[in-house]
Amino acid sequence: MSFRGVMPAITTPFTANDRVDFDFLRQHVAWLAEHGVTAIVPLGSLGEGATLDFDEKRTILEACVTASRLPVMAAVSALSTREACRIATTARDVGCKALMVLPPYVHKGPPHELHDHFTAVFEATDLPCMIYNNPIAYGADLTPPVIADFAERYSNVMAVKESSGDSRRITAVRALCGDRLALFAGLDDMILEGIAAGAVGWIAGLVNAMPAESVALFDKAIAGEAALAFELYRWFLPLLRLDTVPEFVQLIKLVQQECGMGSERCRAPRTPASGAQREAALAVIAHALATRPRL
Prior knowledge:
Elements: E1 5-8, H1 22-34, H2 54-67, E2 73-76, H3 81-93, E3 98-101, H4 111-123, E4 129-133, H5 135-138, H6 144-153, E5 157-162, H7 168-177, E6 182-185, H8 191-197, E7 201-204, H9 211-222, H10 226-240, H11 248-258, H12 275-290
Parallel strand pairs: 1-7, 2-3, 3-4, 4-5, 5-6, 6-7
């Protein structure tokens, strides 16, 4: 497992009768691999992981492992620590190469409970682990000193996905840990800022619909081609900002549908984007497609 490059947090496709669409899932994963992403990350927030039962999660992981030559990094989150550990061990059993460890769903307990939850998952596996910090979405903040402590105590803690929206967090973790951890931008509209602060990877969302542009943007930024990277970023930003609102799942799936690579179907209680939000998103998508740059 190499913690570097563009790694899609993939969406979970559903059929009209609310089953996981495994045929499309395999097609989508293979298509992403063809466009230069470096790993596949299923079961996360964008993958509607909280709505999937355990058997669906296992089968999704198996499908991703068999459909792609790339390593698969399973997102690990659950209502209970026990279930999170079960996902972690199952991910290894089916051939995943790494884990992205999230805080538990719903529970927003005191810091020691969050600490114990992550500790249990790290100790349940020898797979390399990425810590996912997203205080806005999960109400639990893994501060740079906490991350540094995990890195010091657990050799399998190898990377951090930083989604606080504050690129200074990347700087802070890097100051404490040096090159010990691979730092990843975790929001779509902070990739240039993240790389400038020391990020070497991007857990991305719009890559589900536009992998060529996502990989090109990352590659230009990491190579120091600042002017070229910014021009591509300028075009991409209205789409990338769809990743930063509460309805990001519906909106990214809508982009996939408009690009001809997926469906906007979600699992209830989510429903496809509607009303003014849908119309605004469709306008953004139409403009992006009409002005799509040649790479």
